Amino acid sequence: MKLIATVILISILSGCASTQPISFSPSPDYAVSVQSSLFDAVRIDKNDTSLFRNGKAIGFIRVEPVPTNVSSTSDFLSELRSSSESGAVKTRPLSFPSGFTGFAVKYRNYLTGYLFSEESPDAILILSFPEGEFDQISETISHGI
């Protein structure tokens, strides 16, 4: 009897599995939502949130301070973009929600985005995910929670 009840409970729970977006806010300035179906584990360090699926890293969300010796965040972002480009690596502009500026670098099958919030230009958000999921994730960027 217990076995039948357990099987029924597991069937009900697995049928109700959801793929809701989970919001990560690595700082008060940024929040990013990722579909729960893309990952099954999370590691949170000081300024870095890494997402895993089946024991393998699939992406990260990180906030880095803008160096104090640069004239502006947009200048730093431009410098970062030009230093990122090479023969094998191309950058592309991204359309982020209003109030955010940035670009992405494609390397192998991953896109890494670098952006800053015009409201809080003292930190840069860096996120890296497989190319197939990156655009969907980057569209969810908002101010922190």
Topology readout:
Elements: H1 2-15, E1 21-27, E2 30-35, E3 41-44, E4 48-53, E5 56-65, H2 73-84, E6 90-93, E7 100-107, E8 110-117, E9 120-130, H3 131-138
Antiparallel strand pairs: 1-2, 3-4, 4-5, 5-9, 6-7, 7-8, 8-9
Can you characterise this structure?
There is one protein chain. The strands form 2 sheets. A 7-stranded antiparallel sheet has the order 3-4-5-9-8-7-6. A two-stranded antiparallel ribbon has the order 1-2. The chain has a single domain, classed as Protein Transport Mog1p, Chain A (3-Layer(aba) Sandwich), CATH 3.40.1000. Residues 1-14 have low confidence and may be disordered. It contains 3 helices and 9 strands. It has helices spanning 2-15, 73-84, 131-138, and strands spanning 21-27, 30-35, 41-44, 48-53, 56-65, 90-93, 100-107, 110-117, 120-130. It is an alpha+beta fold. A hairpin with a 2-residue loop joins strand 7 (100-107) and strand 8. The longest helix is centred in the first third of the chain and has 14 residues, at 2-15.
Q: Which range best describes the helical content: under 10%, 10-25%, 25-40%, 40-55%, 55-70% or over 70%?
A: 10-25%
The CATH class turns out to be Alpha Beta
**What is the alpha-carbon Rg in Å?**
18 Å
Overall geometry comes to: globular
**What are the secondary-structure elements, in order, as H or E?**
HEEEEEHEEEEH
Low-confidence stretches: 1-14
Strand fraction: 35-45%
Compute the number of strand runs.
9
The number of helical segments is 3
Round the mean pLDDT to the nearest integer and report it: 83
